[in-house]
Amino acid sequence: MGARGSAATSTRAMHGALPAPLREAVDEFAEHLASVRNRSAHTVRAYVADLVSLLNHAQRMGCTEVAELSLDTVRSWLARQRTTGAARTSLARRAATARTFSTWAHRAGLLPADVAATLASPRPRRTLPTVLRPEQAALLVEQPASRPAPPAFPTTTPPPPDGQPAEDHDPTGVAAPSVAAPSVAEAAEPVTDEQDGAAVRLRDRVLLELLYGTGVRVSEACGLDTADVDQGRRVVRVRGKGGRERTVPYGLPAQRALDDWLRRGRQLLATPESRDALLLGARGGRLHPTTARRIVNGYAEAAGLPRTSPHALRHSAATHLLEGGADLRAVQELLGHSSLASTQIYTHVSVERLRAAYRQAHPRA
Q1: Which of 42, 205, 217, 239 does the annotation list as catalytic?
Q2: Is 82 one of the annotated active-site residues of the chain?
Q3: Does residue 295 lie in a domain region?
Q4: Cα distances (Å, whole numbers) of residue 213 to 54, 116, 138, 203, 258
Q5: Which of 260, 256, 284 is nearest to 271 (CA)?
Q6: Is 94 a catalytic residue?
Q7: CATH number at residue 149
Q8: Cβ(219)–Cβ(242) under 8 Å?
Q9: Which of the following is catalytic: 4, 93, 99, 241?
Q10: Domain residues for 85?
Q11: Distance CA 170, CA 167 (A)
Q12: Of 106, 258, 319, 331, which sits 20 to 30 A from 36 (CA to CA)?
C-alpha cells in the first residue's frame, strides 16, 4: 500500500464507536479520497473527521447503515453545528464533506439517491489576507544576516482560523501536502555551538527568501529536495496540492542565499537522516512546517513587524507581483492555484491598498 493508502488506513482510529457498516463506509471513502481523488493525507483526515461527526449524529438519530442517511439528517447535523458556535467557514467545509460523501456513496451503491446533492451551505466570509509592505518584507528576509536566530519555541504564533486545517491556511480551503511531525527536539531547534548557529541562520535566510521570493506554501518549501533546485535556470520544482508539480522561478537574493546554504551551511547540520532534504532542522532531519512557522514569526517579532506567518509572505509575494504589473494567470500558475478565483483575492488586496492610500493622501477623499 502506498503512502496515500496508508494515510487512509490511519484514519480508522477516528471512528471506533460507529457500527460496523458505517465504519466500513468511512474506510472505503477515505481510500477513495486517497487513491482515486489523490488527496493528501492531511486532507483525507479532515474529510474523515467531518464524516465521522456526521455519522455519529446520524447514529444518534437511529441510522445504522449508510442507506438510511437522509437530507434531513444532514441538515439536522449542520444545524446542531451552527447552534454550538461553528464558524461559517466550518459549516461550509462540513457541508462540502457531506455532499462529497453523498455523491460517492450513491455511485458506490450504498445510498439509493444522492441525498445531499441539493444541500446548500453558507457562503464563508472571505477576509482579505495580511500583506506586508515591500519594505517590511525586505526587512524580514534580511533578519537572519543581521541578528542571531530567535528560538523556535512557540511564542505568539496564532492558531489557524476556525474551520481551516492547521496545515497552510489558504483561500482554496484545501490542505497542502503533509510532512511528518517533528520530534520534540526538532521542534525546539536546539543550537549546540556557534558553528551550528551560523548554519541555522543560513538556513533561515534561505527559508525566508524562498517563501517570499517564490510564494510557495510552507509545506512545499519544507518538502523540497536538493535535486528540486535548478541553479542554472534559477527555478525550483515544487510538488503542490493534489500531487501537482510546477516550476517556480526565484531571484538573485534567493540564489545567493541558496549558494551560501549549500556551500557553507547544510553540511554542518546534515546527518544520515537528512537524505536529500533541502532545508534541515537543527537535528538534521527535514525542516517541519511547524518549526518554519515559528522561525518566520520569531524573526518578524525581532524586527518589530506585525505577527507574520509563512502564508502572509505568500500573500505578500502575490500582491507585490500584481502591483508590479504581473498577469493574473501568471500569478495563478506561480502560486499553484487550480482555480483563478483563488488568485483573484489578491486583486482585491491591491484595490484596498489603493483605496487606503487615496483616503490618506487625497484632499477630497
Answers
A1: 217
A2: no
A3: yes
A4: 42, 43, 10, 15, 12
A5: 284
A6: no
A7: 1.10.443.10
A8: no
A9: 241
A10: 3-107
A11: 9
A12: 331
Distance CA 198, CA 261 (A): 10
| Catalytic residue flag (residue 362) | no
358 is catalytic: no
For residues 22 and 148, membership in a common domain is answered with: no
What 3 state SS string does 206-225 have? HHHHHHHHHCCCHHHHHCCE
169 plus 289 within the same structural domain: yes
Asked if residue 339 has pLDDT above 60, the reply is: yes
Residue 117 lies in a domain: no
Sheet bearing 245-249, strands edge to edge = 229-230, 235-239, 245-249
Q: What's the number of domains the chain is made of?
A: 2
Q: What single DSSP character describes residue 65?
A: S
Per-residue pLDDT reduced to its tens digit, 154-181: 433 343 433 333 334 333 333 344 444 4
Whole-angstrom distance, CA of residue 337 vs CA of residue 331: 9
Annotated catalytic, 241?
yes
The pLDDT value given to residue 128: 66
Determine the Cα–Cα distance for residues 169 and 233; give it in Å rounded to an integer: 30
Question: Rounded CA gap, 315 and 211, in Å?
Answer: 10
| pTM metric for this prediction | 0.66
Q: Give residue for cell 524562498.
A: 210
Please identify which of the residues 203, 311, 315, 320 carries the catalytic annotation: 311
Q: Which listed residue (293, 314, 315, 320) is catalytic?
A: 314
